[in-house]
Amino acid sequence: MIAHKDFYVFGWAAPYSILQTVNKTGLYGFVIMPDISAIGPSLPLYYPWNIPQVRQAIAYVINRTAVILTWGPVGVVYLPYWILAPMPAPNVAPGLYLTFPESIRSIVINYTVNWTYAAQLLESAGLYYKNGQWYLPNGTPLTLTLYTDGRLDWLTMSSEIAAELSKFGIPTKIVQIETATYYTEESSCQLPDSVDFVFAGGNKGGVDTLWIYYTIAQWTAYTLFTGAWCAPGTTVPFAFPNVVDNHITGWYCQPVTTNLPIPNNTIVWCVNSTFGYINLTNWENAITAATPGTDTYYNLIKVFYSWFEFWVPAIQIGEAQIGTAVYPKDAVDPSWALTCMPVSNPKYTMAAYSTEYEFGIGWGGIKDAYSLLSYMGAFAPPGQIPPLAQAIINGSLWTKTPQFAAFIGLPTPDPELQACVASYFHTTYTPVTTSTTTTTTTPVTTTTTSTTTTTAVSTVTSTATVTSTITSTSVSTTTAVTTVTVTKPIISTALIAGIVIIVIVVAAVAALIALRRR
């Protein structure tokens, strides 16, 4: 629906037909961003689904791409999610994925469809296959019923999931429940499984932000009720994976305890060297209390993601694309930002979420996408250079407002970005250069070396030797701007307004960062 004088439409995983309708008008454009909110089915807790190998097998059965194609083209409405860990996938938001330490990324498997291996996992749990059907050891056919609400996209994709599982030999049917009843029953453990959010919110600020908590909070990850939280004592099987070249070669267990101000610091305990249990209540209390950036914090994330690989509480199928804004083309031109700071480029993922994504500042803030984008100074009518673009072109983003630059994900001067933005607006840019002076003094002589590097201009090195009796070493780095003639005026009233906006934002940065790190 279009509202706010046609400047804004909220289109979370909107049907492709709606986006086509908007596009056909020729009057409107729309911005699409990965929401990093994944949906998929959970698995029951009853036998034989309480056997880890049975749960793991399903992760190799479902073709995520085929499922999301039932709702629309890949990347327009949904992106396939081929990892189990509730984190930004490398094919969705690579810049956010790379914020996670290698020790965490190394245990995250990029799954592929592999029915042969899935069959081996089921056979290792005592099941057998006969005439197109999988059977339990006692001869009972293995079947599955998936429950979902009235959302058309989830219902459509659930039907494809059921078809694939049935073809594999696990007859699966879909039961649709009225929405209000569905969520009541799901969160109160009255449903054995569900098709819903596996996580919502998913780390839009990277590993060290409050998005980690949004990922695991029960009320944004409904499938974890039926897949885990409904287990007695919120305690379920656990093991760490041994991973070699993107393949799990085995499992191991080691106890995990913390020293945090929470009721119970026992997170994982082991039955033997390859099998143990995790208490999810204790884990959630711990991740809430842990300080981002600490070893304890990262270890707790590793524990949670390892648990997803072992227990498979739910299977991410697709990540929803969010149509953050429909805009009249004669009033707003966001294309420069989308072109020069694409979310798919790891270098600009964070900046894209800061300036192009509706919830870039965080939940509880400005919800109107158009207002948010204007607030960040990113967009202006066609033919005008918006304040943020001007600040990038003339370098003032880094020389005058470095805190704001860091806050939106552009912490260092970027000639490549400057060149791209200047090219888009058919103007030239003012390169921002860094001058470094290093002075070393010995008891006998003093050697001063000065190196100045100016982009596309020159490099000058000078050395002088003098007598001295003092020993000292100093290094200083300064940022300088080289003036370049601009063929198109880039200072405007909009820039002045933008600078005022940026100053206001900088004043709020400390508070916002503190909120993110809670």
Describe this structure in words.
- It is a single chain.
- The protein is an alpha+beta fold.
- The protein has helices spanning 16-24, 52-59, 64-69, 94-97, 102-105, 115-124, 152-168, 179-187, 211-216, 223-229, 280-289, 295-311, 335-340, 349-356, 369-375, 387-393, 396-399, 402-407, 415-424, 493-516, and strands spanning 11-12, 28-41, 78-80, 128-130, 133-135, 144-148, 172-176, 195-199, 235-238, 240-244, 247-252, 256-257, 266-270, 276-279, 318-328, 432-441, 445-454, 458-467, 472-481.
Summarize the entry for a quick read.
The chain is α+β, with helices and mostly antiparallel strands and 518 residues long. Helix content is 35%, strand content 23%. Helix 16 crosses helix 20.
Briefly note the structural class of the backbone.
alpha+beta
Helix content: 25-40%
Q: Counting H and I runs of at least 4 residues, what is the number of helices?
A: 20
Beta strand count: 19
What is the distance, rounded to the nearest whole angstrom, between the alpha carbons of the first and last residues?
Answer: 35 Å
Mean pLDDT across the residues is 79
| Share in β-strands | 15-25%
Poorly predicted regions? 1-10, 359-371, 436-518
Question: Sheet bearing the most strands, described?
Answer: 5 strands, antiparallel
Looking at this protein, list some descriptive labels.
globular; 4-stranded antiparallel sheet; 518 residues; alpha+beta; 19 strands; disordered C terminus
Layout of helices and strands, plus pairs?
Elements: E1 11-12, H1 16-24, E2 28-41, H2 52-59, H3 64-69, E3 78-80, H4 94-97, H5 102-105, H6 115-124, E4 128-130, E5 133-135, E6 144-148, H7 152-168, E7 172-176, H8 179-187, E8 195-199, H9 211-216, H10 223-229, E9 235-238, E10 240-244, E11 247-252, E12 256-257, E13 266-270, E14 276-279, H11 280-289, H12 295-311, E15 318-328, H13 335-340, H14 349-356, H15 369-375, H16 387-393, H17 396-399, H18 402-407, H19 415-424, E16 432-441, E17 445-454, E18 458-467, E19 472-481, H20 493-516
Parallel strand pairs: 6-7
Antiparallel strand pairs: 1-15, 2-8, 2-15, 3-15, 4-5, 9-14, 10-11, 12-13, 13-14, 16-17, 16-19, 17-18
Helix pairs in contact: 2-6, 16-20
